[in-house]
Design a protein that fits this description.
Blueprint: H1 6-17, H2 31-53, H3 57-78, H4 82-93, H5 122-125
Helix pairs in contact: 1-3, 2-3
Length: about 130
């Protein structure tokens, strides 16, 4: 495959390795798979923490890519359309405010849910809005 699309890349890997790909959203996956996915994400986040502490830009990039890869694989395991979910979260985030007015450096301010905030409708994205 000649793609930079993370969803396509990880789907190709899962297909090659025989790893689970659910076609519909489900929280009902085997316990062992749940634990594996949790462990993989935790492992990659720990590698990022170490890379940041060591100020190792190559390891930071590798850890970030591994986190994204494992998260996309986890989404496939749960049948979650992660690109669509990410787009909905982005839409919601764009309704947030930039943070505290008295905070001098907005580059480090945390976005806040102001009066115009609209929460993400994840259920609709997953096609589960009728089940809620």
């Amino acid at each position: 495959m000649n793609s930079n699309n993370p969803d396509e890349l990880v789907r190709e890997f899962h297909t090659k390795m025989g790893y689970p790909i659910n076609d519909h959203p489900t929280a009902d996956i085997p316990f062992g798979l749940t634990k594996l996915r949790e462990w993989l994400i935790s492992k990659e986040v720990n590698e990022l923490t170490t890379a940041v502490k060591d100020q190792d830009i190559i390891s930071i990039a590798d850890a970030l890519a591994d986190i994204v890869y494992v998260c996309y694989g986890t989404a496939l395991s749960y049948g979650i359309d992660l690109p669509a979910t990410l787009a909905e979260v982005h839409r919601s985030n764009m309704t947030k405010d930039s943070g505290n007015d008295d905070y001098q450096d907005t580059a480090y301010a945390v976005a806040v849910k102001g009066d115009d905030y609209q929460p993400p409708n994840i259920a609709a994205v997953l096609g589960l809005d009728d089940e809620q």
